[in-house]
Amino acid sequence: MTRKEALFKDIFDKNNRKVYHLCYGYTGDSEAANDLMQETFIKVWQNLDRFRNQSQISTWIYRIAVNTCLSYLRVEKRKATDEINERIIETKADDVSDKQEQVNQLYKCISQLEENERIIITMVLDEIPYQEIAEISGISEGNLRVKIHRIKSKLTEIYNRHERF
After folding, report:
1. Is residue 16 within 8 Å of 56, Cβ to Cβ?
2. I need a labelling partner for 35 at 20 to 30 A (CA). Which of 41, 71, 75, 96 fits?
3. φ, ψ for residue 74 (rounded to 5)?
4. 23-69 pLDDT, tens per residue?
């Protein structure tokens, strides 16, 4: 195994779950999220030699993932404008645990947020430090904290609306 292959394997092992969750937050579809995660890591592999260590590698990977997801969503919107927001996470089996149903409901609510809100809340759920989220989002940490508070309020409102039905 070459040095680059070993480095890539380590990077993939440390970041693949977070990238998958980010992609899932954008799409609400596990197959699309998996495809986007793979596409993200192909880009990471292709551009690994160009990484300049000016930020954390996870920040760089998240930027690639966000851009990959946004490109995907632009194509999807051209295909069917309303389809993305109407995607519902389907329960695949009757024996899904309550916790899994709550997670599915959360992602269903997240999919109704605006694109920039989805990325921020997904990173918060993945426990990315606020400083890193601010860097990825291109906003100050103080502004980020305000946005997170508003996103959580909006999510609560969306969740409560669904609970009434």
Report:
1. no
2. 96
3. -60, -45
4. 888 888 889 999 999 999 999 999 988 887 777 888 889 889 988 98
